[in-house]
Amino acid sequence: MQAFAQMPDQFTETVTLTDQYGDSYDINALLADGKYIVFDFFYTTCHYCQEETPDLANLYTTMGCNGADVIVIGLECQGHDASHDLDWYMNEFGANYPIAPYSDNPIITTLANNWEIDGTPTYILIQPNNAMNEMGRPPSANQLTAVGAHESACPDNLPIADFTANRTRLPAGETVTFINNSQRSNAWTWTFQGGEPSNSTEENPTITYNNIGTYNVTLTARNRQGNEDTKIRASYIEVVAPPTEPPTAYFAANQVTVIAGNSIDFTDLSRGEPWVWQWTFEGAQPTSSTDQNPSNIRYNNVGTFNVRLIASNMLGSDTLLLENYIHVIPSIGNAVPKAKFTCASRLVQVNTPVNFEDQSEGYPMFWSWQFQGGEPASSEFQVIPQGVTYENSGVFDVTLAVSNTNGGDVLTKHDYIVVYENYVGSYCDTLCNLLPDETAIKLGAHGIDGYLGGHNSDGITTYADKFEYYTFNEISSIIVPILKLEYSNPNDYITFITWDGNDPVPTTVISEQRVYLRDLRENYYQVINFTEPLQVDGPFFLGYQINYTNGTDIVIGLSHNRGYGRPNTFFVKKDGEWKTVSEAYDNISASSGIKVAACLNGETGNELFTETVTIYPNPCNNVLNVENTNGFEPYDFIEIFDNLGRLVYSNNNLGGEKVEINVSNLPIGTYVTRMFTQGKIAVQKFEKMN
Q: 661 with 623: CB under 8 angstroms?
């Protein structure tokens, strides 16, 4: 290599180079950005160039593969023959750095001439301040760090910080072991908010947490060149009060029926502050987990499978095994799902969990719930494990949308949940399809003698009205407007009928009750009590069937004719087929004048006394004990009534598992204890003795 005849002290040219891959290097911009430039003037058949290429390649990797402070570029000084091209040179001698080909970069000849480069290889270092230096051999890392450059790993070898903990929820005073999962690093700095010690340089430290709270954890990972990466897990460690009892294991899945190949999420609902969870999932992948709330548990095989949870804390452990809990089906076929759901307790006190049961048909794969006024307000789970709570009193809608790859369906039950500040036994109202400004009348139709809703020349015997209500679960009586009544036989009768309302027309009979015409009065609103209260769940049809005998004539009032296209709820069975009155008689829309006395009754829970609640002693003298193995929650209450129905004791400030009631001042007699807990009313009698 020849020495410079004239070497400038400062780099003054404007230079942009293109390497063998087409990437451009704006040398002036790189210098302005604080980079150090190393040029290697060479040609492919130069013996010394070939010999020193490995040293330059080592510099390239040691200083960060052009991803840090130093940029290494080879400059081909003259053309090469076909047998000694750049690919051959790079593969043969290990040139891993970018090279600017002679043919694509005329500036190379200009630089070589300006700087009077007479031999190869020639190495030139240009510093960020544009100072130029000739190097006799490929510069070393030490030479470059001496003038201010920094060693660095290549971009693909930079460290990545990452970690996990053997547990993230623990009682105060316990320890956590952190597992370092960092890559390409050999030194670590940990920071533990709220932990003791608060800092560590160990690879896998064990830290004690003494104070209740939620804490961040930070890890910085470094390599030998000083490159570093930081990982922060915010609110990662939750420290809770030490448990006072062993845990009671309990859990729920977001769905219990799944198509093979799909996944299920599980939610831990255990009591007693467990902090260790051991799950076993029969027939699933993975087959086990130690997460508190495992997600994405995949079931690939058709069948019915068990799920087991062992929940533990320092005071003990408990196991819950739900056998045949998960049902895996092979496919949905061509079925389009139909949304259906129910709820056992719909008349509830504020902040009492309400549990909904999905009963949808047709293999839905996706669920979307909307709970007006509830918390949560929505859910994408088939099952809401913790239930839905309502903070404010009112009457609220519930909507469920279900779908699969074949389609979907939506069901909204209006005014479905009734919430009170304090528990009430029932919520009742009178239902009627008459509009506010309407009264029941005798309604005729063009071309017939007689009236709709009663005897007429078309011989219609059966009528029904559709009631679109979701609030109520029991019908006790109906109020019928009898506008015309004639009979000759005291045994003539009318049969009042209710049908299920889930079909477009009356089909499935729910109840029938015969009423003799002799017991009815003309021009009178007749109250007809059902022998047994009728249980309903959602919409229903209510109507009647009359018999045609000589001398019999009855007409039950309807609304006036509202006209074509107006609201209609009235159906007639004409020529053996159910039709809306609009279909049977052109331009008629109407509703029945029958009113329905309906109630939503709270769920009683006398079975609680045999399962979780006991009252003793019975008979008793001075103290009555009420013991609840599940414990009393806020808003639970206990009331005692005497045999005349008068309230003689009330307590809505319950707690713990046992309540002692002083009954020494009560007279001798029979009393009724009414208790609200677990969303149910439980009733039990007891005898007061001396």
A: yes
Check: CB of residue 209 under 8 Å from CB of residue 176.
yes
State the pLDDT at residue 669. 84
Strands 24-26 and 426-431, bridge-based pairing: unpaired
pLDDT in tens, 322-367: 899 999 999 888 889 999 999 878 888 888 889 898 999 988 888 9
- Closest by alpha carbon to 284, among 294, 267, 295, 297? 297
Whole-structure pTM over 0.70, yes or no?
no
Q: Report the pLDDT value the prediction gives residue 4, as an integer from 0 to 100.
A: 45
pLDDT of residue 442: 95
How many other C-beta atoms can be found within 10 angstroms of the C-beta atom of residue 234? 10
What sections of 368-526 are H helices per DSSP? Answer: none
Provide the pLDDT for residue 29.
96
Half-sphere exposure of 219 (CA within 13 A, CB side): 26
- The 3-state secondary structure of 493-525 reads EEEEEEEECCCCCCCCEEEEEEEEHHHCCCCEE
In the prediction, which pLDDT does 674 show?
Answer: 78
13-29 as b/e, with b when 16 or more CB fall inside 10 Å?
Answer: eebebebbeeeebebee
Handedness of CA 382, 384, 387, 388 (dihedral sign): negative
User: Could you tell me which residues are beta bridge partners of residue 571?
Assistant: 464, 580
Strand pairing report for 257-259 and 493-500: unpaired
> How many other C-beta atoms lie within 10 A of the C-beta of residue 190?
22
pLDDT score for 604: 61
Calpha distance 637→349 (Å, rounded): 11
Instruction: Count Cα neighbours of 229 within 13 Å in the Cβ-side half-sphere.
Output: 17
In this structure, how many other beta carbons lie within 10 angstroms of the beta carbon of residue 530? 16
What does the CA dihedral 497, 500, 506, 509 come to, rounded to 10 degrees?
-50
Q: Which residues of the chain have pLDDT under 50?
A: 1-5
